[in-house]
Amino acid sequence: MNPMNADLQVLMAGIETAIQSGSLWLLVLALAVACFFEFINGFHDTANAVATVIYTKSLRPWPAVIWSGICNFIGVFAGGVSVAMGIVKLLPVTLLAASDSSTSLIMVFSMLISSCVWNFGTWYFGLPASSSHALIGGIVGVGVGSALWDGLPATSGVNWTKATDIGLSLLISPVLGFALAASGYLLMKTVLKNPTLYRTPPGGEKPPLGVRLALITTSTGVSFAHGSNDGQKGVGLVMLILIAILPAQFALNPTATPEGITKALNAANAIKEELAMVPQSKPSKSFSLLVPEARASVADEAPQNVVKASALVNEIGHDLEKIHSIEELRNDDRFQLRSRILLLESELGKLEKTGINLAKVKSQRKNLTSLVEYAPFWVIVMIAFSLGLGTMIGWKRIVVTLGEKIGKTHLTYAQGAVSEFVAMSMIGISAVIGLPVSTTHCLSSGIAGSMVAAGSGVRSGTVKNILLAWILTFPMTVAMSAGLFVLLRKLFS
Q: What is the pTM of this model?
Protein backbone atom coordinates (compact mmCIF):
# COMPACT_ATOMS: atom_id res chain seq x y z
CA MET A 1 0.00 0.00 0.00
CA ASN A 2 1.16 3.55 -0.75
CA PRO A 3 2.57 5.03 2.52
CA MET A 4 0.56 8.23 1.99
CA ASN A 5 -2.68 6.27 1.65
CA ALA A 6 -1.77 4.20 4.69
CA ASP A 7 -1.13 7.38 6.72
CA LEU A 8 -4.52 8.76 5.74
CA GLN A 9 -6.25 5.50 6.66
CA VAL A 10 -4.61 5.60 10.09
CA LEU A 11 -5.70 9.23 10.49
CA MET A 12 -9.31 8.39 9.63
CA ALA A 13 -9.26 5.49 12.09
CA GLY A 14 -7.85 7.85 14.72
CA ILE A 15 -10.59 10.43 14.11
CA GLU A 16 -13.21 7.72 14.45
CA THR A 17 -11.65 6.62 17.74
CA ALA A 18 -11.56 10.23 18.97
CA ILE A 19 -15.25 10.68 18.11
CA GLN A 20 -16.18 7.50 19.98
CA SER A 21 -14.16 8.50 23.05
CA GLY A 22 -15.38 12.11 23.03
CA SER A 23 -11.82 13.47 22.64
CA LEU A 24 -12.17 14.88 19.12
CA TRP A 25 -12.45 18.47 20.40
CA LEU A 26 -9.24 17.99 22.39
CA LEU A 27 -7.46 16.64 19.33
CA VAL A 28 -8.61 19.55 17.15
CA LEU A 29 -7.74 22.14 19.80
CA ALA A 30 -4.27 20.69 20.45
CA LEU A 31 -3.45 20.46 16.74
CA ALA A 32 -4.71 24.04 16.22
CA VAL A 33 -2.42 25.34 18.98
CA ALA A 34 0.55 23.44 17.50
CA CYS A 35 -0.17 24.94 14.06
CA PHE A 36 -0.52 28.39 15.63
CA PHE A 37 2.92 28.00 17.23
CA GLU A 38 4.42 27.12 13.85
CA PHE A 39 2.50 29.99 12.23
CA ILE A 40 4.03 32.44 14.73
CA ASN A 41 7.40 30.81 14.16
CA GLY A 42 6.98 31.58 10.46
CA PHE A 43 6.41 35.33 10.73
CA HIS A 44 8.73 35.64 13.74
CA ASP A 45 11.82 33.83 12.47
CA THR A 46 11.52 34.05 8.70
CA ALA A 47 11.90 37.81 8.83
CA ASN A 48 15.55 36.89 9.32
CA ALA A 49 15.69 35.30 5.88
CA VAL A 50 14.16 38.22 3.97
CA ALA A 51 15.64 41.18 5.86
CA THR A 52 18.85 41.33 3.81
CA VAL A 53 17.27 40.97 0.36
CA ILE A 54 14.68 43.62 1.19
CA TYR A 55 17.12 46.14 2.62
CA THR A 56 19.61 45.70 -0.20
CA LYS A 57 16.80 46.14 -2.76
CA SER A 58 17.54 42.70 -4.22
CA LEU A 59 13.84 41.85 -4.09
CA ARG A 60 10.73 43.81 -3.30
CA PRO A 61 9.13 42.84 0.05
CA TRP A 62 6.18 40.75 -1.13
CA PRO A 63 8.03 38.63 -3.72
CA ALA A 64 10.78 38.07 -1.12
CA VAL A 65 8.31 37.00 1.57
CA ILE A 66 6.29 34.74 -0.73
CA TRP A 67 9.43 33.08 -2.08
CA SER A 68 10.72 32.59 1.47
CA GLY A 69 7.41 31.00 2.47
CA ILE A 70 7.62 28.54 -0.42
CA CYS A 71 11.23 27.64 0.49
CA ASN A 72 10.22 27.12 4.13
CA PHE A 73 7.41 24.83 2.99
CA ILE A 74 9.81 22.73 0.89
CA GLY A 75 12.44 22.70 3.63
CA VAL A 76 10.11 21.00 6.11
CA PHE A 77 9.89 17.97 3.80
CA ALA A 78 13.66 17.72 3.46
CA GLY A 79 14.44 17.98 7.16
CA GLY A 80 13.66 14.45 8.33
CA VAL A 81 12.82 13.96 12.02
CA SER A 82 16.19 14.05 13.82
CA VAL A 83 15.70 17.59 15.22
CA ALA A 84 12.07 16.75 16.09
CA MET A 85 13.17 13.75 18.12
CA GLY A 86 16.00 15.76 19.70
CA ILE A 87 13.45 18.29 20.96
CA VAL A 88 11.13 15.57 22.27
CA LYS A 89 13.99 13.83 24.08
CA LEU A 90 14.52 16.88 26.28
CA LEU A 91 11.78 15.41 28.44
CA PRO A 92 12.76 12.55 30.74
CA VAL A 93 12.01 9.16 29.23
CA THR A 94 9.74 8.25 32.16
CA LEU A 95 7.44 11.15 31.23
CA LEU A 96 7.51 10.26 27.53
CA ALA A 97 6.68 6.65 28.35
CA ALA A 98 3.81 7.52 30.70
CA SER A 99 0.45 6.20 29.53
CA ASP A 100 -1.68 8.86 31.28
CA SER A 101 -3.17 10.78 28.33
CA SER A 102 -4.46 13.67 30.48
CA THR A 103 -0.95 14.32 31.81
CA SER A 104 0.44 14.17 28.29
CA LEU A 105 -2.11 16.72 27.07
CA ILE A 106 -1.40 19.07 29.97
CA MET A 107 2.29 18.72 29.11
CA VAL A 108 1.72 19.66 25.47
CA PHE A 109 -0.62 22.59 26.18
CA SER A 110 1.72 24.02 28.84
CA MET A 111 4.76 24.06 26.58
CA LEU A 112 2.83 25.36 23.55
CA ILE A 113 0.95 28.15 25.31
CA SER A 114 4.05 29.47 27.08
CA SER A 115 6.05 29.42 23.83
CA CYS A 116 3.28 31.12 21.83
CA VAL A 117 2.79 33.88 24.42
CA TRP A 118 6.50 34.70 24.50
CA ASN A 119 6.95 34.54 20.73
CA PHE A 120 3.95 36.76 20.07
CA GLY A 121 5.04 39.28 22.70
CA THR A 122 8.60 39.62 21.40
CA TRP A 123 7.31 39.89 17.82
CA TYR A 124 4.92 42.67 18.84
CA PHE A 125 7.83 44.72 20.18
CA GLY A 126 9.95 43.92 17.13
CA LEU A 127 12.54 41.91 19.07
CA PRO A 128 14.18 39.06 17.14
CA ALA A 129 13.99 36.51 19.98
CA SER A 130 14.35 32.81 19.28
CA SER A 131 11.30 30.58 18.74
CA SER A 132 13.57 27.56 19.29
CA HIS A 133 14.77 28.98 22.59
CA ALA A 134 11.17 29.62 23.67
CA LEU A 135 10.04 26.12 22.75
CA ILE A 136 12.96 24.49 24.55
CA GLY A 137 12.24 26.62 27.61
CA GLY A 138 8.62 25.45 27.45
CA ILE A 139 9.68 21.80 27.28
CA VAL A 140 12.14 22.14 30.16
CA GLY A 141 9.44 23.95 32.16
CA VAL A 142 7.09 20.99 31.71
CA GLY A 143 9.77 18.66 33.06
CA VAL A 144 10.35 20.96 36.04
CA GLY A 145 6.61 21.28 36.69
CA SER A 146 6.14 17.51 36.52
CA ALA A 147 8.93 16.93 39.02
CA LEU A 148 7.55 19.55 41.41
CA TRP A 149 4.07 18.01 41.16
CA ASP A 150 5.49 14.62 42.10
CA GLY A 151 7.39 16.11 45.04
CA LEU A 152 10.79 15.56 43.42
CA PRO A 153 13.68 17.99 42.96
CA ALA A 154 12.98 20.31 40.04
CA THR A 155 16.18 19.23 38.28
CA SER A 156 15.03 15.60 38.10
CA GLY A 157 12.34 16.45 35.55
CA VAL A 158 14.69 17.17 32.66
CA ASN A 159 16.93 15.01 30.49
CA TRP A 160 19.99 17.12 31.30
CA THR A 161 22.28 15.24 28.93
CA LYS A 162 20.16 16.24 25.95
CA ALA A 163 19.44 19.67 27.45
CA THR A 164 23.19 20.32 27.74
CA ASP A 165 23.77 19.41 24.09
CA ILE A 166 20.94 21.66 22.90
CA GLY A 167 21.82 24.44 25.33
CA LEU A 168 25.40 24.51 24.11
CA SER A 169 24.26 24.67 20.48
CA LEU A 170 22.00 27.64 21.30
CA LEU A 171 24.69 29.43 23.31
CA ILE A 172 27.54 28.84 20.89
CA SER A 173 25.62 29.64 17.69
CA PRO A 174 25.35 33.44 18.28
CA VAL A 175 29.04 33.71 19.19
CA LEU A 176 30.00 31.58 16.21
CA GLY A 177 27.67 33.55 13.92
CA PHE A 178 29.24 36.83 15.05
CA ALA A 179 32.81 35.58 14.61
CA LEU A 180 32.23 33.87 11.25
CA ALA A 181 30.37 36.85 9.77
CA ALA A 182 33.04 39.29 10.94
CA SER A 183 35.81 37.07 9.54
CA GLY A 184 33.88 36.46 6.32
CA TYR A 185 33.34 40.18 5.81
CA LEU A 186 37.05 40.94 6.25
CA LEU A 187 37.95 38.10 3.88
CA MET A 188 35.47 39.37 1.28
CA LYS A 189 36.91 42.86 1.53
CA THR A 190 40.40 41.45 0.92
CA VAL A 191 39.38 39.33 -2.09
CA LEU A 192 36.65 41.45 -3.73
CA LYS A 193 37.70 45.03 -4.29
CA ASN A 194 34.48 46.34 -5.84
CA PRO A 195 33.59 49.38 -3.65
CA THR A 196 29.90 49.04 -4.53
CA LEU A 197 29.67 46.02 -2.25
CA TYR A 198 30.63 48.03 0.83
CA ARG A 199 28.54 51.14 0.36
CA THR A 200 25.04 51.86 1.61
CA PRO A 201 22.68 50.90 -1.26
CA PRO A 202 21.39 54.02 -3.06
CA GLY A 203 17.70 54.64 -2.45
CA GLY A 204 15.51 52.58 -4.76
CA GLU A 205 18.46 51.31 -6.83
CA LYS A 206 18.85 47.55 -7.32
CA PRO A 207 22.28 45.98 -6.75
CA PRO A 208 24.42 44.66 -9.61
CA LEU A 209 23.12 41.40 -11.09
CA GLY A 210 25.85 39.18 -9.56
CA VAL A 211 25.35 40.66 -6.09
CA ARG A 212 21.60 40.38 -6.42
CA LEU A 213 21.80 36.69 -7.37
CA ALA A 214 24.15 35.99 -4.45
CA LEU A 215 21.83 37.68 -1.97
CA ILE A 216 18.74 35.92 -3.31
CA THR A 217 20.58 32.58 -3.21
CA THR A 218 21.67 32.99 0.41
CA SER A 219 18.19 34.17 1.43
CA THR A 220 16.73 31.11 -0.29
CA GLY A 221 19.20 28.92 1.59
CA VAL A 222 18.28 30.43 4.95
CA SER A 223 14.56 29.97 4.25
CA PHE A 224 15.07 26.35 3.20
CA ALA A 225 17.34 25.62 6.18
CA HIS A 226 14.87 27.30 8.54
CA GLY A 227 12.09 25.06 7.26
CA SER A 228 14.21 21.93 7.59
CA ASN A 229 15.28 22.79 11.16
CA ASP A 230 12.37 24.69 12.73
CA GLY A 231 9.69 22.76 10.87
CA GLN A 232 10.84 19.60 12.59
CA LYS A 233 10.08 21.15 15.97
CA GLY A 234 6.44 21.52 15.00
CA VAL A 235 6.41 17.96 13.71
CA GLY A 236 7.74 16.71 17.05
CA LEU A 237 5.03 18.61 18.94
CA VAL A 238 2.26 17.19 16.77
CA MET A 239 3.57 13.67 17.34
CA LEU A 240 3.46 14.22 21.10
CA ILE A 241 -0.19 15.31 20.73
CA LEU A 242 -1.16 12.34 18.57
CA ILE A 243 0.53 9.83 20.87
CA ALA A 244 -1.13 11.41 23.92
CA ILE A 245 -4.68 11.39 22.52
CA LEU A 246 -4.56 8.43 20.09
CA PRO A 247 -1.85 6.07 21.37
CA ALA A 248 -3.34 3.03 19.64
CA GLN A 249 -2.91 4.64 16.23
CA PHE A 250 0.32 6.62 16.66
CA ALA A 251 2.44 5.13 19.48
CA LEU A 252 4.25 3.03 16.86
CA ASN A 253 4.83 3.67 13.19
CA PRO A 254 1.60 2.27 11.69
CA THR A 255 3.11 2.04 8.20
CA ALA A 256 6.08 -0.08 9.28
CA THR A 257 6.57 -2.81 6.68
CA PRO A 258 7.15 -6.51 7.47
CA GLU A 259 10.76 -5.92 6.39
CA GLY A 260 11.03 -3.02 8.82
CA ILE A 261 9.69 -5.12 11.68
CA THR A 262 12.13 -7.91 10.79
CA LYS A 263 14.99 -5.40 10.89
CA ALA A 264 13.78 -4.17 14.28
CA LEU A 265 13.67 -7.77 15.58
CA ASN A 266 17.16 -8.43 14.24
CA ALA A 267 18.31 -5.24 15.96
CA ALA A 268 16.83 -6.40 19.27
CA ASN A 269 18.62 -9.73 18.94
CA ALA A 270 21.92 -8.02 18.09
CA ILE A 271 21.61 -5.73 21.10
CA LYS A 272 20.76 -8.71 23.27
CA GLU A 273 23.92 -10.54 22.12
CA GLU A 274 26.06 -7.45 22.68
CA LEU A 275 24.67 -6.96 26.19
CA ALA A 276 25.43 -10.59 27.01
CA MET A 277 29.10 -9.85 26.36
CA VAL A 278 29.29 -6.62 28.38
CA PRO A 279 30.43 -8.10 31.74
CA GLN A 280 33.38 -9.80 30.00
CA SER A 281 34.18 -7.04 27.50
CA LYS A 282 36.65 -4.20 28.02
CA PRO A 283 35.25 -0.73 28.58
CA SER A 284 36.10 1.94 26.04
CA LYS A 285 39.17 4.19 26.30
CA SER A 286 37.25 6.83 28.21
CA PHE A 287 36.99 4.38 31.11
CA SER A 288 40.77 4.33 31.55
CA LEU A 289 40.80 8.11 31.96
CA LEU A 290 38.65 7.94 35.10
CA VAL A 291 40.19 8.18 38.57
CA PRO A 292 40.11 4.89 40.55
CA GLU A 293 37.16 5.99 42.68
CA ALA A 294 35.13 6.81 39.58
CA ARG A 295 36.09 3.50 37.98
CA ALA A 296 34.73 1.64 41.00
CA SER A 297 31.49 3.61 40.81
CA VAL A 298 31.16 2.84 37.10
CA ALA A 299 31.86 -0.83 37.67
CA ASP A 300 29.07 -0.97 40.24
CA GLU A 301 26.64 0.92 38.04
CA ALA A 302 27.18 -0.91 34.74
CA PRO A 303 25.84 -4.39 35.70
CA GLN A 304 22.60 -2.88 37.03
CA ASN A 305 22.06 -1.03 33.76
CA VAL A 306 22.91 -4.19 31.82
CA VAL A 307 20.25 -6.12 33.73
CA LYS A 308 17.63 -3.44 33.00
CA ALA A 309 18.57 -3.17 29.33
CA SER A 310 18.64 -6.95 28.91
CA ALA A 311 15.18 -7.34 30.44
CA LEU A 312 13.80 -4.63 28.17
CA VAL A 313 15.34 -6.01 24.98
CA ASN A 314 14.04 -9.49 25.83
CA GLU A 315 10.50 -8.11 26.14
CA ILE A 316 10.89 -6.13 22.90
CA GLY A 317 12.12 -9.19 21.03
CA HIS A 318 9.27 -11.27 22.43
CA ASP A 319 6.72 -8.69 21.17
CA LEU A 320 8.26 -8.36 17.71
CA GLU A 321 8.78 -12.03 16.93
CA LYS A 322 5.01 -12.63 17.06
CA ILE A 323 3.99 -10.04 14.46
CA HIS A 324 4.46 -9.03 10.82
CA SER A 325 2.62 -5.70 11.08
CA ILE A 326 1.80 -3.21 13.82
CA GLU A 327 -1.92 -3.94 13.38
CA GLU A 328 -1.37 -7.41 14.83
CA LEU A 329 -0.52 -5.89 18.22
CA ARG A 330 -3.34 -5.12 20.61
CA ASN A 331 -3.91 -1.41 21.24
CA ASP A 332 -2.53 -1.52 24.81
CA ASP A 333 0.51 -3.51 23.70
CA ARG A 334 1.49 -0.87 21.16
CA PHE A 335 2.08 1.80 23.79
CA GLN A 336 3.89 -0.72 26.00
CA LEU A 337 6.23 -1.61 23.16
CA ARG A 338 6.88 2.09 22.52
CA SER A 339 7.69 2.63 26.19
CA ARG A 340 10.08 -0.31 26.24
CA ILE A 341 11.97 0.96 23.19
CA LEU A 342 12.30 4.43 24.73
CA LEU A 343 13.43 3.01 28.07
CA LEU A 344 15.92 0.69 26.35
CA GLU A 345 17.47 3.64 24.49
CA SER A 346 17.76 5.47 27.82
CA GLU A 347 19.51 2.52 29.49
CA LEU A 348 21.88 2.02 26.56
CA GLY A 349 22.76 5.71 26.73
CA LYS A 350 23.56 5.36 30.43
CA LEU A 351 25.72 2.32 29.68
CA GLU A 352 27.76 4.26 27.14
CA LYS A 353 28.39 6.96 29.75
CA THR A 354 29.87 4.36 32.09
CA GLY A 355 32.51 3.55 29.46
CA ILE A 356 30.85 0.55 27.81
CA ASN A 357 31.43 0.58 24.05
CA LEU A 358 28.21 -0.23 22.16
CA ALA A 359 29.36 1.10 18.78
CA LYS A 360 28.73 -2.29 17.14
CA VAL A 361 24.98 -2.01 17.63
CA LYS A 362 24.64 1.71 16.87
CA SER A 363 23.19 1.15 13.39
CA GLN A 364 20.99 -1.65 14.72
CA ARG A 365 19.54 0.71 17.32
CA LYS A 366 18.35 2.99 14.52
CA ASN A 367 16.44 0.09 12.98
CA LEU A 368 14.72 -0.42 16.31
CA THR A 369 13.97 3.23 17.09
CA SER A 370 12.52 3.71 13.59
CA LEU A 371 9.36 2.14 15.03
CA VAL A 372 8.89 5.15 17.35
CA GLU A 373 10.79 7.96 15.57
CA TYR A 374 8.60 8.76 12.58
CA ALA A 375 6.06 11.29 11.31
CA PRO A 376 3.09 10.72 8.98
CA PHE A 377 3.15 12.63 5.70
CA TRP A 378 0.02 14.63 6.54
CA VAL A 379 1.68 15.94 9.72
CA ILE A 380 4.61 17.26 7.69
CA VAL A 381 2.20 18.88 5.19
CA MET A 382 0.23 20.55 7.99
CA ILE A 383 3.33 21.96 9.67
CA ALA A 384 4.87 23.01 6.35
CA PHE A 385 1.68 24.88 5.42
CA SER A 386 1.50 26.61 8.83
CA LEU A 387 5.15 27.67 8.68
CA GLY A 388 4.93 28.80 5.06
CA LEU A 389 1.73 30.78 5.65
CA GLY A 390 3.14 32.40 8.77
CA THR A 391 6.18 33.47 6.77
CA MET A 392 3.97 35.62 4.56
CA ILE A 393 2.35 37.50 7.45
CA GLY A 394 3.72 39.80 10.14
CA TRP A 395 7.32 39.89 8.90
CA LYS A 396 7.80 43.66 8.79
CA ARG A 397 8.44 44.46 12.47
CA ILE A 398 11.50 42.26 12.79
CA VAL A 399 12.77 43.03 9.28
CA VAL A 400 12.97 46.71 10.27
CA THR A 401 14.94 45.83 13.40
CA LEU A 402 17.43 43.68 11.49
CA GLY A 403 17.81 45.98 8.51
CA GLU A 404 17.90 49.38 10.22
CA LYS A 405 18.35 49.18 13.97
CA ILE A 406 21.20 46.75 14.68
CA GLY A 407 23.89 48.76 12.91
CA LYS A 408 24.45 52.50 12.98
CA THR A 409 24.39 52.49 9.19
CA HIS A 410 22.14 50.86 6.59
CA LEU A 411 22.92 47.24 5.68
CA THR A 412 25.35 46.95 2.73
CA TYR A 413 25.43 44.27 0.03
CA ALA A 414 28.51 42.61 1.52
CA GLN A 415 27.09 42.58 5.04
CA GLY A 416 23.82 41.09 3.84
CA ALA A 417 25.49 38.37 1.79
CA VAL A 418 27.98 37.35 4.49
CA SER A 419 25.35 37.29 7.25
CA GLU A 420 22.93 35.20 5.19
CA PHE A 421 25.64 32.76 4.07
CA VAL A 422 26.81 32.19 7.66
CA ALA A 423 23.24 31.69 8.91
CA MET A 424 22.37 29.35 6.02
CA SER A 425 25.47 27.20 6.65
CA MET A 426 25.03 26.96 10.42
CA ILE A 427 21.33 26.14 10.29
CA GLY A 428 21.75 23.61 7.48
CA ILE A 429 24.57 21.75 9.24
CA SER A 430 22.62 21.72 12.51
CA ALA A 431 19.58 20.20 10.77
CA VAL A 432 21.75 17.40 9.37
CA ILE A 433 23.32 16.52 12.74
CA GLY A 434 19.99 16.84 14.59
CA LEU A 435 20.67 19.90 16.79
CA PRO A 436 18.10 22.73 16.98
CA VAL A 437 19.68 26.16 16.56
CA SER A 438 18.04 29.56 16.40
CA THR A 439 17.67 31.21 13.00
CA THR A 440 17.27 34.50 14.86
CA HIS A 441 20.48 34.08 16.83
CA CYS A 442 22.49 32.99 13.80
CA LEU A 443 21.46 35.87 11.54
CA SER A 444 21.16 38.78 13.97
CA SER A 445 24.57 37.95 15.48
CA GLY A 446 25.95 37.62 11.93
CA ILE A 447 24.65 41.10 11.01
CA ALA A 448 26.18 42.51 14.19
CA GLY A 449 29.51 40.80 13.40
CA SER A 450 29.59 42.21 9.87
CA MET A 451 28.75 45.70 11.18
CA VAL A 452 31.60 45.58 13.70
CA ALA A 453 34.04 44.23 11.08
CA ALA A 454 33.05 47.08 8.74
CA GLY A 455 33.80 49.61 11.47
CA SER A 456 30.30 51.04 11.30
CA GLY A 457 29.45 49.87 14.80
CA VAL A 458 26.15 48.73 16.29
CA ARG A 459 23.34 50.54 18.06
CA SER A 460 23.88 49.76 21.73
CA GLY A 461 20.20 50.24 22.62
CA THR A 462 18.95 47.73 20.05
CA VAL A 463 21.67 45.21 20.86
CA LYS A 464 20.90 45.48 24.59
CA ASN A 465 17.20 44.84 23.90
CA ILE A 466 18.02 41.82 21.72
CA LEU A 467 20.43 40.44 24.35
CA LEU A 468 17.82 41.00 27.05
CA ALA A 469 15.26 39.07 24.99
CA TRP A 470 17.79 36.26 24.45
CA ILE A 471 18.65 36.11 28.16
CA LEU A 472 15.05 36.27 29.40
CA THR A 473 13.54 33.85 26.86
CA PHE A 474 14.67 30.66 28.58
CA PRO A 475 13.88 31.48 32.26
CA MET A 476 10.58 33.16 31.38
CA THR A 477 9.29 30.30 29.25
CA VAL A 478 10.50 27.73 31.81
CA ALA A 479 8.62 29.59 34.56
CA MET A 480 5.44 30.03 32.49
CA SER A 481 5.40 26.42 31.33
CA ALA A 482 6.11 24.97 34.79
CA GLY A 483 3.44 27.20 36.34
CA LEU A 484 0.88 26.27 33.69
CA PHE A 485 1.63 22.57 34.12
CA VAL A 486 1.11 22.67 37.90
CA LEU A 487 -2.02 24.86 37.55
CA LEU A 488 -3.63 22.60 34.93
CA ARG A 489 -2.80 19.50 36.97
CA LYS A 490 -4.59 21.05 39.96
CA LEU A 491 -7.59 22.01 37.86
CA PHE A 492 -8.00 18.64 36.16
CA SER A 493 -6.71 16.20 38.78
A: 0.76
